[in-house]
């Protein structure tokens, strides 16, 4: 079964080659990583600002922006501060001092956060009102609505609130990360003394409370109105919302000799108490209250972000989820992988490789079906699987458990250090072990990020055959409907041997490197890609067809970037389709005028990683889990598989050509690091959906 990307978009045929340039590379050839990430989130915000998108989808992008920015501070900013504090931070790849990077990052992040708040207040809120959806403050409520909220407060909110006062007997309370709080100043009317108190807005309650059909009020407004019930007999002098972000990055020693699972569980407990890296406050907060928070939290002025209320707009997901189909993207149903009557997925894979493109092709009837049929098939002897992220209720995990309980050998490599999914993955590991699966945690010092499944089956003639899946995305049924990913299902013996050897490397102890259709990090992936870049340079020098096409989430590895610069300087056209961070500076005369960088954001999250080399007119196509980042190439087990079928190679080439075509709507990276949005072109995601329909 094959899929086709024959998109009639006026595809470009390539760049005009430039004369060879000297090989010296300028020192300022890399963009700053932190700024590039913020520019990515700026593109997310532009989607929220776009009048061409359905209204509730714009609300969703506002929520995504807020969540993204939280993670940026929890990981990137926290990591930079930690390295500065420990003296480990040298110059960044862009040549800037860490303090300069941090200062510039704070300024740009604050500017974007203000734009985000203004977009919500000045644009989205009025548009929601036009559609009968109102987000109002307490003073805007009708008397009948206020009466109803008074009752709801007594019944549902008051019982879970805990006011914490600060005095000599009560130290300043711990403020948990990502929690919304009220800083309250209360006065004893008899003694005249004032005290500071903190009230946490319970995260177990809806961020926006529906007070009547279609009308919502922020939860902190409800709590603030009822502070006299929390501090009876006291005068409430003032109250202001604030929110803290803490360092949430894990620091697990890769040289540990004790049980990794136990160590990680302790680290998850410790992470709750990471240092503060950002304090968000409403712009109405007076200096004396802010000074108190800064002192108690041990932070400096550059950590403070003054914003128009309400804070914590990540909670807008609840509004985006409202049952208003008229304000959402139209429903889309992926095409199903259809099996001939009386056939099974193993027979289909024996007939030839299957290339699936999610979410346009159904995950449930392809990848998920492979594992489910393998669990139920009495001829299947073993299943081996990597799990990096999966859903709370996972059909794949259920199938693995069923297979183990049926007596099959089941090996699962669970990456328990997958960021922010650590607790869920630990729970899955326990459940799989209890069912009789052999659970491994990969290789010490490396994260297992590759997306692999291997099924070992005894055929009717007694022979043993291996069926494999290698993909670009996680085995996660929910995100498979939202993330754009590619997957190759194959019974090719060479791939089967490669994947078997890789699993033995993950679960055993080996230095196997004789892979034939697979490139594996950290051993051969970077070198393999650079070798192919150099081959394209040689082909161009010899007058043969040469071109490089890349689709990835992030491009920051200096060795890869420099190899692409050398290709451009030699005259090789290079097209890069990147979702997020890009350290490469395109369009610089004498350095990168043959490189174009595009970014596409939209209904689906572009997540696949594809590397295409023209290879003298016979394109070599690789797809898999690896982005072009240090962590992927040096500190993770990643795998790329070469697509062998000629038509499937042509399909993937057509996909990437469409993505970077000038007639396709996209953001286009300029030499100065800005990303002008050319939004009036063809929507490639809509085109692919229309063809599936």
What does this structure look like?
The protein is of the alpha/beta class and 693 residues long. Helix content is 36%, strand content 21%. The strands form four sheets. Strands 14, 18, 19, 20, 21, 23, 24, 25, 26 and 27 form a ten-stranded mixed beta sheet that branches. Strands 10, 11, 12, 13, 15, 16, 17 and 22 form an eight-stranded mixed beta sheet that branches. It has a six-stranded mixed beta sheet with strand order 2-4-3-7-8-9, with helices on both faces. Strand 15 and strand 16 form a beta hairpin. The longest helix has 33 residues, at 98-130. The model is unreliable at 1-22 and 252-258 (pLDDT under 50). Its EC number is 2.7.4.1.
Short key terms for the protein model shown above:
693 residues; alpha/beta; polyphosphate kinase like; Endonuclease, Chain A; 3 domains; 10-stranded mixed beta sheet; 8-stranded mixed beta sheet; 19 helices; 36% helix; globular; disordered N terminus; metal ion binding
List the helices and strands and how they pair.
Elements: H1 33-49, H2 55-86, H3 98-130, E1 134-135, H4 143-157, E2 164-166, E3 180-187, E4 194-200, E5 208-212, E6 215-218, H5 219-225, H6 227-230, E7 235-246, H7 260-271, E8 276-282, H8 287-297, E9 304-307, H9 317-320, H10 345-351, E10 354-358, H11 367-376, E11 380-387, H12 395-405, E12 409-414, H13 422-434, E13 438-440, E14 447-448, E15 451-458, E16 464-471, E17 483-490, H14 493-507, E18 518-521, H15 525-541, E19 548-552, H16 558-569, E20 574-578, E21 595-599, E22 605-606, E23 609-613, E24 620-624, H17 630-634, E25 636-643, H18 646-660, E26 666-668, E27 677-678, H19 684-692
Parallel strand pairs: 1-6, 8-9, 11-12, 12-13, 14-25, 17-22, 19-20, 20-21
Antiparallel strand pairs: 2-4, 3-4, 3-7, 5-6, 7-8, 10-17, 11-15, 15-16, 16-17, 18-25, 19-23, 21-26, 23-24, 24-25, 26-27
